[in-house]
Amino acid sequence: MHDTIVILDFGSQTSQLIARRVREHQVYSELLPWNVVSERVQALRPKGFILSGGPNSVYEPGAPRVPAYVLEAGVPILGICYGMQALTHALGGSVAASTEREYGPATVNPLISNPLLPESEFSVWMSHGDRIETLPDGFIRLAESDNSPFAAMGDLSRGYFGVQFHPEVHHTPFGSEMLRRFVVEACGAQSDWTPEAIIDESVARIQAQVGNQRVLSAVSGGVDSSVATALVHRAVGDQLVAVFVDNGLLRKNEPEQVVETFREHLGVQLFPVNAVEDFMAALAGVTEPEQKRKIIGEKFIRIFEEQARRLEQPPFLVQGTIYPDVVESSAPDRAQAHKIKTHHNVGGLPEDMVFDLVEPLRYLFKDEVRAVGEALDLPTNMVWRQPFPGPGLAVRCLGEVNWDRLERLREADAIFREELSLAGLLRMKQSKGGISGSAQAFAVLLPVRSVGVMGDLRTYQEAVALRAVTTEDFMTADWARLPHELLARIANRIVNEVSGVNRVVYDITSKPPSTIEWE
Ligand code: XMP
Question: Which residue lies with its CA nearest to atom 7 of ligand 1?
Fold first, then answer.
């Protein structure tokens, strides 16, 4: 069992980030709701607790409290924002209600040398309403800021700390190191949550679950299904059979890469199904985006069902569910989101088709999934693939989806991404530590024809829109400021090399008000 840090979630939007930051130091952490039954937490034998931020005020009726077992555990505690206030309240200090929130960047000055904070002033991100008024017994002030006399506090003998700011967000550059100091130095947790350890453990868990029975997997070329499949293959070898449904909606060369990687490179028993004509027939004449999505989802289920029967339906099915999909949350909106996603994942199969699910990525964040994928020797461009929508190019081929238009789009998209990649502007692995290049970049084929001239001839052809965005979380995004010379070269190449396209435009809207995809 790994040394574990338990993060109790008081409902902040950034609680998951705390768990990710801790894991970046290769210390295992779990995020659990603050009111989870104590046995769940105690079974993990935590080496320390982190109490997250949250939207409440400690004196409100029904406000989340620090559970007694946390204070009785005799291990270090770090309270962040609301977590700091709840800790103060629980230990007999007082918190002042405030009607105004402090929100945004601030500078914090350490007051005395201590195990968590740097020696000199540092920048942080503040987001809090209430603030500490009197410290609990045994605590001292560790740092102050202009607006927060108690920016950080600590009881060094017990290893209890509280910070008013958010160490988990990028806007607190020292935050990651602060969390490392807390979990590794204050709590003494081992940094043993490495990709190799994750693989060994997953292999043992999968073997114990599956025994000598057969397992079915559907690979799509996406990161999660690829890594999950490779892990299960590592665990059970030829007991695994994988199905790849080529729906004709992947990007250039992707279907070939999926087959090559799994079959030739990893030696997985992979059954490719060429369902291109099926999908094209089902999509013929359909232009409405939601209808496209529905048709693609249903068609996939029916083909998958047929393949599962053909393969004498193995009892187990691999699912690429990752930690953010299953983590229980105190925030009602996220609990709801989880329900929808789960339903979406397992829904659609006929009732007589029941699988036991093998979910080897259930405890992993996306970064960890990628690190495991690399350790399993999956190709870099598969492991670091930019997000790609499930319905594939169908939602980037505006208007009717047919083979000719898809090929046109595929070519234009390949040229765009190739040029970005050559210019070092297609963000993949190098993204850590800041934005460089676009987080998502693709071409969109518009259902618009316009007039052009090529030599002496007048043309009347389709237009391609290029979309490249910078973003951290895909919830908001800005358009990438690509160099004009690069855009000129890409437009030139697309118009010259892709038949049927005589115009290229660049999308300069941010999200919101636009979305990243066009459909
Ligand atoms: P939007 O367009 O809403 O996209 O700004 C945000 C992110 O979600 C991806 N996306 C999808 N992914 N199925 C998916 O699996 C979909 O139907 C879908 N629509 C959008 C999009 O590529 C972007 O990364």
Answer: 474
